[in-house]
Amino acid sequence: MELLPSGRISDGCELHPGLIFKDKEKKRKKREKNGKRGEREEKKRKKQKEKQKEREQGGKRILYRRMPGNGDRLSILGLGCMRLPVKEGKIDRERAKSQVQYLIDHGVNYIDTAWTYHLGENEPFLGSVLADGYREKVKIATKLPSWTVKSREEMDRILNSQLERLRTDHIDYYLLHNLTGVLWDKMKDLGVLDFLERAKADGRIINAGFSFHDSVEDFKTIIDAYPWTFCQIQYNFLDEKNQAGTEGLEYAASKGLGIIVMEPLRGGKLTTLMPPEIKTIWEEAEVNHTPAEWALRWVWNHPEITVVLSGMNEESHIEENLRTADEAYPNSMTEKELQLISRVEQKYRTLMNTGCTGCRYCMPCTSGVDIPTCFEVYDNLYLSGNENEGKLMYAAKAGGIIRGDIPGYASRCIQCKECLEKCPQHLNIPELLKIVADKFEGPDLETWKAAAKQTFRVE
After folding, report:
1. Backbone dihedral region for residue 247 (phi beyond 0: left; psi -120 to 50: alpha; all else: beta)
2. Which residues contact 186 (CB under 8 A, 6 or more apart)?
3. Where is the composition biased (Basic residues) (predicted)?
4. Which residues contact 143 (CB under 8 A, 6 or more apart)?
5. Pair 151, 251 in one domain
6. CA distance readout (Å), 356 to 123, 400, 439
7. Model's pTM, two decimal places?
């Protein structure tokens, strides 16, 4: 025991004054530490009581994150309006209005729509709903349809029409819709950067971003081309290596962009496509969550993500999502839980016919085949069992309709086999492409191409 020079210890009975001081100081610090812990626990209890009171009173119950570029406080759960409830082919206005306003009343403050949703009826409907005292409570996100725009003047015409439809004088978050590498080049040539700058300067839009469906290389190119506030990507535990993927997510975050996630449930397929093998793994979990809750928690576990969009259109799904969004903190999943998700992801891979992970090492194909897209559509058909949807998406995606590109059909394969040595999964790509072509490229392909052009509003 170290003694200070100002005193002594005699016969073990007289304590050195310095030791007495040290002992008192130690006790004081311990009291302070316990006091601070008590304060934290008291604050936590108070917060829990307040949250419970809000719930009992029908108040807000949701978590929020900040948009990095502007500090906006956004609900981690956003409403994607593409899948509002419908009746007889049109928006079920009464039910949809009730759902939208209920979500806003319970804390959702990010609402995503687009020029093309519900054949152009989505924006006017949302405008009427928000005009009923709700506009100032939310941030509106809508999109410029990049695949249909043909001139710089048309960009202004569409934006001005959107402002009228939405009954507002500004769009909080404005996106270039469905960008690919090809569409980005087209939009740049048409003067989209000048359009964005002028629209921000005159206050018609506040923040500029883009939604994306292409390779991570093209994603990075677009990120670096303009000072975007945010981007919107497809992301879920099956798409870590697909499109922008985790690599793109981390790149965008490193550049200071806010990240909006779409398709966290892969269009509902992670909940509706439930092979017995997948169901068994979920049932082994120590915590009882639904597949939808697991999938959402996995996305929200990433601190880079600001908002996750959900196309919830069932009241039970709305309640479940609100409950999950009240508890899903970043970096909160345990190692066991992450391992569970990994097992589910790996099992899905084994159930997919092609075994393709979407890594795109095989690209570009010298014959112009969009190999990952051909396999993605084929695997989705196998998982969903919906042949009509599969044929529509093959015509739209592999046919280049969504991308605004030349067709990348499986039948373009000339069996050169250059892709074989590039594939880390060692797939027999040429043989698999034959199977895909046989499945989708029958005599009805032209019919499905026409349907895809109509569905995605491509002239």
Report:
1. alpha
2. 146, 404
3. 25-34
4. 113, 114, 115, 174, 175, 176, 177, 178, 211
5. yes
6. 37, 20, 17
7. 0.74
- Give the DSSP H or E segment for 80: strand 77-80
Report the DSSP pairing between strands 230-234 and 258-262: parallel
**Extended strands (E) in 214-290:** 230-234, 258-262
Is the same domain home to 328 and 375? no
Q: Low-confidence residues of the chain, pLDDT below 50?
A: 1-15, 53-58, 458-459
- Give me the sign of the Cα torsion angle 123, 124, 129, 130: positive
Range of the domain at 360: 352-455
pLDDT of residue 80: 95
Q: Please give the structure tokens belonging to residue 75.
A: 């609900």
* 253 and 372 co-located in one domain: no
Query: Between the CA of residue 204 and those of 35, 129, 200, 243, 339, what are the distances in Å?
Result: 52, 20, 6, 30, 46
Tokens of 273: 């496509």
Q: Tell me if 9 is assigned to some domain.
A: no
Query: Among 252, 232, 263, which residue's Cα sits nearest to residue 376?
Result: 263
Q: Are residues 160 and 266 in the same domain?
A: yes
What is the domain count for the chain? 2
CATH code at 319?
3.20.20.100
